[in-house]
Amino acid sequence: MTGSVGLLLEAAQAAASVPVFDEAVNATVEKERCGRYGLPYTGRVERRRIFYGSLIADDSWHAVLFTALEGYGVYHSAAFVESNRTQMKFPRKLRFPVGSNNLRLLQSGIFGPSTNVTVDYYVNERGWPDQIGREHHQRDLIIQRWKKMGMQINDIGLLADVDETPSRDFLRAVQVCDITQFKQDGPKPCSVPKITTSALVFESAPDCITKRRWAHPNLVIGACIDGIRNSTATYTPDRAWDGTAWLNDGYVKGSGWSAVPKDAEHFPLFKAADFRRSTSYGSIVVWPASHSAFHYHNAIESVAVLRNKYLTYGHPVKDAMTMNLAEVNGDINAMIECVLGRPTGRPLKHGLEPGGLAARKARKNLGPIPIAFDVPGYAERRMAELRDIINKTFA
């Protein structure tokens, strides 16, 4: 790999050559860390295990390495699922088949010296009611893989997209802090089992910070994950799409968990679809920074790949391959305005933070910055490369 993404790979490989620096539990450090999130630290000395899972497809190595650096050495396992078709059923060539260089790199230790990285393959030519059904079927394989990797009821399941990651500080916090959502041995177990992070959104480049927040990725304690805990004490709801779709039986409808009957004593276990679909409870953010995660959205390496994404994946745009790039999607419009340093003539849905990454770094009270964006030279080179890509598109 060359250019800016090569800098990220070098950083990941350098990390792999030394011990994980923050593995040991230091009571003073952990108490201060938990306090940043309004959480107590009650002396826990053993870190909870975190099992990571994501679909993977045409995501750039920028996004993969961005996530790997943030979670380096934290995850017990990292389970990926790749499909031979997009959500809109367009055929695609597998990037990570057995024996491929891409798979070797993914499993080369970039996620940590002892993190077990796997890729399962979803090949299914059946029809589905819509693209979301296909997506949920793929995610269901993640929990199956977690179970094979030995996940237990006291472990944490983290389900994300490749370009989403909790900050490293928050990952370490959920491993040791006293968290209500992870206590499921009392009355009404699994009524509130999920944590939703609040992600700072970078649109294609480190300098393009938008003013929105992204409510992913999501974490659920193993005691409330279907397949990890099999208990007759929990409610089994009706589900669509062969049992993998989100809860739709009256427990989760409309505004979500508010639909739970007041006298309910048992609650459904979470399937993979529920991580992202059911109403978020217990969202934890850094105050006043308002984020505990990062979303490196549309971290593209070519306009062709970007256009193909909007044509063939979720929320498809019929003419994505031919229409004006700034009109394909509002997020793309924001990236173009940021990179070119001028308005495109179309209003921004969320707006951009003035001053980009440098301005945010200068204000120490605004919370963490992605580890990848502190790699020397990366942010500047990435911005220059993206500017060149966009200028060629509009030449």
- Major sheet: order of its strands? 3-2-1-4-9-6
Mean pLDDT: 89
Oligomeric nature of the chains: single chain
Percentage of residues in DSSP E strands: 5-15%
The total tally of domains equals 1
**Global structural class:** alpha/beta
Shape: globular
Q: End-to-end span in angstroms?
A: 27 Å
Number of strands: 10
Task: Specify the helix fraction band.
Answer: 25-40%
Q: State the low-pLDDT regions, or none.
A: 252-259
Blueprint of the fold:
Layout: H1 3-15, H2 27-36, E1 50-55, H3 61-70, E2 75-83, H4 101-106, E3 116-122, H5 131-148, E4 156-161, E5 164-166, H6 168-176, E6 194-196, E7 199-203, E8 209-214, E9 218-221, H7 272-277, E10 293-297, H8 303-312, H9 325-328, H10 330-340, H11 356-362, H12 378-393
Parallel strand pairs: 1-2, 1-4, 2-3, 7-10
Antiparallel strand pairs: 4-9, 5-10, 6-9, 7-8
InterPro entries: Glyco_trans_17 (IPR006813)
GO cellular component, one term: membrane
GO biological process, one term: N-acetylglucosamine metabolic process
Keywords:
4-stranded mixed beta sheet; alpha/beta; 10 strands; 12 helices; 395 residues; 14% strand
How does this model look, in words?
The protein is of the alpha/beta class and 395 residues long. The chain has one domain. The strands form two sheets. The chain has a six-stranded mixed sheet with strand order 3-2-1-4-9-6. Strands 5-10-7-8 form a four-stranded mixed sheet. It is globular and about 60 Å long. The two termini are 27 Å apart.
